[in-house]
Amino acid sequence: QLQLVESGGGLVQPGGSLRLSCAASGFGFSTSTMSWHRQAPGKERELVAAITSAGSSNYADAVKGRFTISRDNAKNTVYLQMNSLKPEDTAVYYCHTEDVFGRWTSWGQGTQVTVSA
């Protein structure tokens, strides 16, 4: 059974850091592109960062230079290191993957990140 389980969210002050983790199971993690998305209240879900099976990554302009996505194929886990956090980073963060042929897509349950003084 395919499963994505996020952890690491919480409350942090502006300028602080958090590291999110997404533990994956039930599919070929090492050959899959993994991504992080976020959804703030009243806004649409948006892509934050993605990493391919080869380790290539891309980022939303809003987080470039502050966030880093990485993966550990031995642990079937993808990470999102978030530094210099801003109040506008407040959102529920979701882990995502999908079949390269579009046969399935999967989301984690989400983890809340709140940036506030």
Short description:
This protein is mostly beta strands. It has strands spanning 3-7, 10-12, 18-25, 34-39, 46-51, 57-59, 67-72, 77-82, 91-98, 105-107, 111-115.
Shape label: globular
Average pLDDT score = 96
Strand content: over 45%
Helix content: under 10%
| Beta-strand segment tally | 11
Uncertain segments are none
Helix-strand sequence:
EEEEEEEEEEE
Radius of gyration, in angstroms, nearest whole number: 14 Å
Distance between the termini: 40 Å
Number of helices: 0
Biggest sheet descriptor: 7 strands, mixed
Describe what you observe in this structure.
The protein is mostly beta strands. About 0% of the residues lie in helices and about 50% in strands. The chain is built from no helices and eleven strands. The protein has strands at about 5, 10, 20-25, 35-40, 45-50, 55-60, 65-70, 75-80, 90-100, 105, 110-115. The strands form two sheets. Strands 2, 4, 5, 6, 9, 10 and 11 form a seven-stranded mixed sheet that branches. It has a four-stranded antiparallel sheet with strand order 1-3-8-7, with no helix packed on it. The radius of gyration is 14 Å and the shape is globular. It starts with a strand and ends with a strand. The mean pLDDT is about 95.
